[in-house]
Amino acid sequence: MVKEAVVQLREVLADLMSQFERLLQRLEEERQFIRARQVEEMGQSSVAVTEILEKIRQVDRQRQELTAKMARQLKMKAGEITLATLDRELGSNTGLTEDRQRLLTLITEADRSNRENQAILKGVMVATEVVIRAMGGQGQPELSYNRLGSKKNVVGNINNLFSKQL
Questions:
Q1: pLDDT single digits (tens) 26-36
Q2: CB of 24 closer than 8 Å to CB of 110
Q3: Under a CB-based contact definition with an 8 Å cutoff, are residues 110 and 20 in contact?
Q4: Tens of pLDDT, residues 32-65
């Protein structure tokens, strides 16, 4: 009965790892869309990421239910059970410790990738704000140089930055 539960748990873990691998791929695609400022693709990618995250939550609920069931079978408290403790309790040859390590690696990589995307997006947003401010004449004066190389503070339309002779 316990061996069957281990096989079942490892299948759930394999599905969970597969979902995290999909998430990592999608986050990498999203990063490329952010850098290229492809807004429509960024939106589609965001929807796909949300769907993958929902699938991860579903699969993780299955993992939690299976580990709780195994804890009851092994007469362990559900709150004390981890993949590593299960593996030790079952003789350290189930592969659960290795699965746990791989899953933790994937989770860490996904978190790092997500934070990197957030930083890139923030940079793109700041750069876009600077351009909008320059075009719309809002905000603080911008330091500029005229045709003769003299410094001047410019507040106003971006057209002020171009030569009148154009």
A1: 999 999 999 89
A2: yes
A3: yes
A4: 999 898 989 999 999 999 999 999 999 999 999 9
